[in-house]
Amino acid sequence: MDAHLNGLLRWGIQNSDPEELRRRAAAAGATATDTATDATDATDITIVQPATEASGGRSSVGLALAPSSANAPHAVTGALNAAIASAHTEADAGTAAEGQQQPLDRKWMEAVLGKDDVTRMKEARDMLLNPDATKENLEIALDDLLFLVESIDNACDLHTINALVPVANLLQSEHPTLRSGAAWVIATAAQNTPKVQKQMLETKVLDRLTQLLKEESQMEIRAKALTAVSAILGHNPAGVERFDELNGFSLLLEVASNNADDAFLRKLTFILRQLCTQETAALVASRLVQLMAPAFFANLLSRPNVDLREKILDLLSALLEVPELHSRVISQLVPFQLEATMKTLQAEAAASTDVAEEYQDLLPRLTQILAQMRS
Fold this sequence. Notes:
One of its GO terms (cellular component) is endoplasmic reticulum. By secondary structure, the chain is mostly helical.
């Protein structure tokens, strides 16, 4: 339905007598009983828009809602047609003054337009707080919240309606799907939203995510927890400082060194590089250089995933661009190990044209970084 028709429908409902709507809906439903073959089938409602007719120097547009099949919900169609008919009658007669509008029945509005976002969020919150809720109930509630908090306004309301803490509580659930879902809701809500980032620090959500990163055995859930941490830390100095207090950077490097999969490492190196280019670049870069083992970059560059290798070089380049750390990066990360890695990659490229094509961007980048480290 386009914006004009949607507005017309709402206007018609707002200016209709609820009792008259009920009467016409009942009449339409009674007729449908004689003709419908299966009232439970899912059907669509089609808008019928006859051609515009000239009338007295004005344009009069006729609208109707028609079921797209014999099994359509005739009661709903009748009610909506009644609303639209009322809208035309009142509009043409010029009698629907704003102060004389009939009060709208809430049940009818919800039936036609659906519940507002805050109401849906509160219902999801109540489900999360329900001690008798099943795992499936909780998964549905998290899915609903995930969709709703994509709106910044709704994300800000998450804590206002006391739903943030119930979501965070599920980070410690025994069910992997609930831990994953909770982390994803938090990541979506916090993304580029300073108000929500602050709320998540105040409610210790960042602390819980850090604990999840430490204890989680499933790498996929760890990756979602990492995304949520990144969303809270982005352009948020207070968040970065708190994460450092929690030994979060040490934890991340530990995870990276203990057989993390390539997908997790790509995400990790990308996030660390982003943090090295923001307001807290000096703190993050200094902590990373302090904590990294001398062979950290060489070990990760030995992995076969080319995309991962490129992201590792992006991170190394970002560290070198922090002026006060240039000499420390060179002295602590041992360039000769990177030189050995360079020779290995060059040998691989020489042995295979396919590999050489894969490395056509990687090798020049590494050569440039080594030259930068020697300067």
